[in-house]
Amino acid sequence: MALEDVEHCEDFCVHEDRIQRANEKMPDEDELYDIAELFKVFGDSTRIRILYVLFESELCVCDLAQTLNMNQSAISHQLKILKQAKLVTGRREGKSVFYSLADDHVRTIIDQGREHIEE
Amino acid sequence: MALEDVEHCEDFCVHEDRIQRANEKMPDEDELYDIAELFKVFGDSTRIRILYVLFESELCVCDLAQTLNMNQSAISHQLKILKQAKLVTGRREGKSVFYSLADDHVRTIIDQGREHIEE
DNA sequence: TCTATATATGAACAGATATTCATATGAAAA
DNA sequence: TTTTCATATGAATATCTGTTCATATATAGA
């Protein structure tokens, strides 16, 4: 859609100053995309459950699958997404791979979300 | 899938104590679902952009559409989702409806996400 | 080496989601 | 009341996403 095609309301409603100010402080496209991508990772209850389990201690894929009562493949797929988002890290120990939380933002973000809900 | 059907690894890998501890602290199904639902709302760059714009000042739907260069219907649909998640509130003034951030969790959550990315 | 076990991954499919289009609703002005 | 403008919403569609199934890879042990 071309910029000039965007419909807009009459003089009363358009606040040029506010629009301009908003655009100045807006992060660039790439960053907005990255932020949304990060929250997308938190936006699935299987992944939230994995993170909650890892709050307690590191676990291998098999433990995670058993705890969450899901098959190993589904867990592996989700772990891959969590790893790409740098929310978890894996460490191989023989045949097993143990996963743990990558940093403390995970906890903070989930806690904030939980706080928002409980209002 | 029945519980007994879940595949699991041999003695080495299963850590019953850890699994039990993890399950004890796990929020119940409803809450896990709600948390995921909330983050799902943050997991879309259009909605993130709307929230960033509202960081600066309240705006009517038309202003939002123009600022983000999107059509009014798309913005209205997204505002509905944001409103349901109690992230924004609307106030009618004549023909226009002005939207603003519902509370400060919005800022905190997005800031935390941004922090995590910039590492 | 060959076998068994733990994890990873590609393909397929079902279900969810964002945008667009058309239209309805709500409010103000004529 | 009728018209006009701002917003809301249902339906349709294209795209994306999570799970499953089958299979590949990696490691340890025989």
The counted number of beta strands of chain A is: 3
Q: What portion of the residues of chain A fall into strands of 2 or more residues?
A: 5-15%
Query: Average pLDDT value of chain A?
Result: 89
Unreliable segments of 5+ consecutive residues of chain A: 1-6
Count helical runs of chain A. Answer: 6
Gross geometry of chain A: elongated
The secondary-structure element order of chain A is: HHHEHHEEH
Integer-rounded radius of gyration of chain A:
21 Å
Strand adjacency order, main sheet of chain A: 1-3-2
- Briefly note the structural class of the backbone of chain A: mainly alpha
Helix content of chain A: 55-70%
Sheet having the most strands of chain A: 3 strands, antiparallel
Q: Biggest chain pair contact, residues each?
A: A-B, 68 and 68 residues
Q: Distance between the terminal alpha carbons of chain A, to the nearest Å?
A: 40 Å
Oligomer: homodimer
